[in-house]
Amino acid sequence: MTLFPVTPETYTLSITPDLQRFVFDGHLTLSAVAHAPCDTIRLDCADLEIRTCNISTGKTDAAQTSCKFTLDPAKETLIIVPPEPISGPFFLTIVYSGTINDTMAGFYRSRIEVPGGPTHMAVTQFQESDARRAFPCFDHPAQKAVFELKMIIPEELVAISNTTIQSMTQQADGKKQVVFAPTPKMSTYVFFFGVGPFEIHPDATDPRVRGVCLPGMGDQTRFGLTFGRKALAYGEAYYGIDYPLPKMDLIAVPDFAFGAMENWGAITFRENLFLHISGVTSWEGESRICEVIAHEIVHQWFGNLVTPEDWKYLWLNESFATYFGYGMVDHYHPDWEFWPQFVKSQTESAMSRDALHETIPIEMPGDALVAITTSTAPIIYNKGGSVLRQLEAWIGPDPFKAGLRRYLSDYAYGCAASHHLWEILAQTSGIPVDRFMENWITQPGFPLVTVRRNGDTLFFDQRRFTFLPGDTREMWMIPLTLALYSHDGSVTVHTRIMENATDEVDLPKGIHAYKINPQQTGFYHVKYEDPDNFQELETRVKNRSLPSMDRWGIQNDAYALVKSGALTMDAYLSVAQWYMGESDYLPLSSLDNHLFEAALILEGEIRARTIRTEIALIHTALDTMGWTPSDRDRPTSAMLRDQLLVHGACLKDDRVLRHLEPRFREFMEGAGIVPDIFRAVMTAGGVKGDPAALDAMIARYEKSAVEHERMILVSAFGSIAPWPLLEKALDYALNHVPDRIRYLALVVAAGNPEAGSNLWPWLEDRLPRMKTMHPMLFERVISAFVPIPGLADPNQTLAFCKTLVTYEPPAGGYYRPFTGTVAGQCRFSSTGEVMYSKQNYIHIK
Asked: Mean of the pLDDT values across residues 601-619?
């Protein structure tokens, strides 16, 4: 546990916001304890004007004396100097003021459209370290305290915070004072307050769960409320600990940089991730709403009740919320195939990110900067969640559940480090979980397991998997699982821990085929050096006797080997032929994405063959599942159809465009489009290259009041062709679309074959404007531009990436992985089907 010289006990805070001038006045009384004589008190403080500081020691009613103070903006610190050194209990009163900013961090404003109402609402976003922008505080997760809040607001507005309202009194000046009940002991980053013309809609079954929205949107909260209530019940049952607050608000916020935020009892969401509009929200949108709500509700235990004692343990929040979020949805909607969605969206993306040389461990070492960015999220969220799936599969669900219950009970309202959880899980399972997880959490990367057969013995070796060559010495404790197929048709599963660089397994008699990592619970790639066995796996893929999860694993491992230079693209196209006629979401969706990426990157004849394979796959799949949405569709079928149609349209396939263009004409005439193909129809309209099509999409965007629809339309701006019209669309997005979603058009444009070599110069010409975006959203744009548009001039792109690494330290460190991306993608594009050229890599470096 980190030791601090001063421990806060209670923040008593008064906030008076002014939504006309976008400023607020604050009055803070901090009750704290100094553990040793202190001649200075250092509080985290940013962008605040401090007016007075007064201090008293001992009793609450003791007379206070004035303190000298200084602000250090560079270190975001308020340094208070008491008249004499203090120790023991003390009370610090600070009068200050601040700005209700427009940066979507701290206490910020969000533009709204309410007939006859205000033009803005204001809410807080404090994770990881932005509470200091709303009040001086000890802005560290381990510095937990109780928060007592009152807000003085216009009479016609509504105030929301973590707890219920304790009292409300009218003032003579036309304002009202709203006092909230004290919070539990908690960290600054989950403290919340907001003010606006909110409507509050309690769930009919569990009134603790409340939807908070702007006027007139109450009906749009019902879907999210229903699932929120179920997710809360699941959490209470699974963790064996009742939700400790009297209410849980689900709050829709128009301007929001993140997807959602787990403020204790007052969860905030982007509108499209909470509000549901019948006839507009697609199946994919519905599943995403449920997944995000579940994720944030898991945080009410993992993060809010038990908090990481330092940001290096952030994964104890996010990995668990990611993993259990999917489990919650799967519990109530098993027909939604949520574990296949988890493997594709979490495990597959984590492996792609972690295969770069410039990666990070799940648990950051020492005092390393930890922040959620496009660079770190795939490790902390996706890889962390995938490693938890691997852990539960190894030790079993019952010991896993028992250990988590004990962990949450033992550390409730306190803080924990990774080893606290591992020690408990080791005790409940009787397995050395601590040694195993230390291995996976504290070192970067993941292994490639190579297997070959000699007679009745399998020989294994492991090494770190990377897209680019390099000498590495990492070693993992690998939960090695083998599905063994006998001549008599039986299947047995063999499990062992591979701790060394090599291992071997003696096979029982009669085994004619094997699949490593069945059900893909292990976080590693597999390379088979056994042609006969690979041929057996081919047969099982083709006749679908191999489970869907394993069919995904075989082609995903193969594509990773192509990108590392260990397998030719020609060989991967042969593997792709095994999947003709495939209709299951996971293997087909993944294969389609891989082929589409390769079609954007490769050149010459290998690119032409890749596109032919991709189009054949799309046609065969759509012929099997149907080209048109149906009431009989499963959610994953609807999602898959839309994806296939989008990629077919981007590649300008005649059959796909003939299918979609009549629907786009209907859209231009004002007709509605089935939500589950709306993205595909808009993409086809963009690809058409008609200025009238762009005008129609802009007109619908400007008229739409639904964030889900607006986001799809903005994304479609990036699919416009040819370049002059695409440039017009991107400039419109940059200048007329809010910061929170403008990046979508740019990300889609990065995968637009029509952008060609024009996109990167467009980016550099508008870089000053781009840098005004929220840093996380700007990073998303760069992470999309580097892998494909950046290949037009790799050396120029690499130079640009190197400038970003030094851009405004320490944030520049988030861009460091992009240099490896440039080199890896250049290797892939320049060779396609031969082993990696070391000379080429030296040139790129």
From this structure: 95
Catalytic residue among 296, 348, 614, 707: 296
CA 643 vs CA 457, 623, 714: distances in Å: 42, 15, 17
Residues 6 or more apart whose CB falls under 8 angstroms from that of 323 comprise 342, 384, 385, 386, 388, 389
Computed on alpha carbons and rounded to an integer, the radius of gyration of the chain in Å comes to 28
Spatial distance between the Cα atoms of 354 and 745, rounded to a whole number of angstroms: 26
Of 125, 131, 56, 142, give the one whose Cα is nearest residue 91: 56
What is the DSSP secondary-structure string of 215-253? TT-GGGGHHHHHHHHHHHHHHHHHHSS---SS-EEEEEE
Backbone angles phi, psi at 577, to 5 degrees: -65, -25
Local structure of 508: helix, strand or coil = coil
Q: Which two tokens stand for residue 465?
A: 């998997």
What is the H or E stretch that residue 90 is in? strand 86-99
**Whole-number Å distance between alpha carbons of 614 and 611:** 5
The residue type of 13 is: L
Instruction: Write out pLDDT tens, residues 644-678.
Output: 999 999 999 999 999 999 999 999 999 889 999 99
Residue type, 570: D
* 217/504 Cα distance (integer angstroms): 61
Structure tokens belonging to residue 721 = 């062709």
**145: DSSP letter:** B
pLDDT-derived band at 836, boundaries 50, 70, 90: very low
Question: Which value, to the nearest 10 degrees, does the dihedral of the CA atoms of residues 770, 775, 779, 780 take?
Answer: -90
Q: Is 614 a catalytic residue?
A: no
Query: DSSP per residue over 409-442, as a string?
Result: HHTTTSEE-HHHHHHHHHHHHSS-HHHHHHHHHS
**pLDDT score recorded for residue 844:** 27
Average pLDDT, the chain: 91
Per DSSP, the three-state class of 744 is helix
> Please, how many CA atoms are within 13 Å of residue 612, restricted to the half-sphere of its CB?
10
Question: Six-digit token pair at 206?
Answer: 């569990």
Is the separation of the CB atoms in 69 and 53 below 8 Å? yes
Global pTM exceeds 0.90: yes
* H/E run at residue 196: strand 193-196
Q: Are 529 and 513 in contact (CB under 8 A)?
A: no
Strand-strand pairing, 120-125 and 193-196: antiparallel
- How far is CA 680 from each of CA 627, 714, 726, rounded to the nearest angstrom? 12, 13, 17
Q: What is the pLDDT of residue 825?
A: 57
In sequence order, what are the residues at sequence separation of 6 or more whose Cβ sits closer than 8 angstroms to the Cβ of residue 702? none
What's the rounded Cα separation, in Å, for the pair 422 and 708? 41
**504/494 Cα distance (integer angstroms):** 12
pLDDT digits (tens, 9 = 90+) for 293-322: 999 999 999 999 999 998 889 899 999 999
Measured distance CA(218)–CA(227) in Å, rounded:
15
Gap between the terminal Cα atoms of the chain: 42
Q: For residue 823, what pLDDT is reported?
A: 56
Distance (Å, rounded) from C-alpha 260 to C-alpha 23?
25
Helices and strands per DSSP (H, E), number in the chain: 28, 29
CB 419 within 8 A of CB 1: no
